[in-house]
Design a protein that fits this description.
This protein is mainly alpha-helical. It has five helices and three strands.
């Protein structure tokens, strides 16, 4: 809800200043973020909001880069003269077993080219993933661990201090 208010206030500010285009909207958004960050020194709720916004933007940019990197790797595999892949189904133990977080993780994995979330065993906490090329399994699992770590950092950033995730 806070993000929606931030977004609408930014659009209204940009429009009222006569800069109702993308650049003006982004500038207004950044100025309101800086104001929230400064007021966050006094108001805990604004501090949590700005921290959540920072983690969200960081995660979004990182994930977009990962999608482009995976797209490049899949295209390289497909266009190679000799296709040398080792597809595999991996059982990945998730750090947190809440269904909403596992569903979001599985969706993000499925959006990434070369991976597909297949099933989740809630009793064991295992997410089954199909990887197109698992010759280096540690690279696949390292990427999964990093994705989950960054996602949980973003989702937990807006929680009150003293509340354990």
């Amino acid at each position: 809800m806070s993000f929606l208010i931030h977004l609408l206030t930014s659009a209204a500010l940009a429009w009222s200043l006569g800069a109702g285009h993308l650049g003006g909207g982004l500038l207004a958004f950044a100025l309101l973020y800086l104001l929230a960050r400064a007021l966050g020194l006094v108001i805990a709720r604004l501090r949590r909001y700005s921290r959540s916004l920072e983690h969200g933007i960081s995660f979004g940019l990182w994930f977009i880069a990962q999608v482009f990197l995976a797209t490049y790797q899949v295209a390289r595999l497909v266009l190679a003269r000799r296709v040398d892949v080792e597809p595999a189904i991996l059982a990945y133990p998730v750090a947190r077993r809440e269904m909403d977080k596992v569903t979001l993780l599985g969706t993000l994995l499925t959006l990434t080219p070369g991976t597909l979330a297949l099933d989740y065993d809630q009793a064991q906490g295992l997410l089954y993933i199909h990887a197109l090329d698992a010759r280096r399994r540690e690279d696949v699992t390292d990427t999964l661990v990093e994705l989950e770590r960054r996602l949980l950092a973003w989702l937990d950033a807006g929680k009150a201090e003293g509340v354990s995730p």
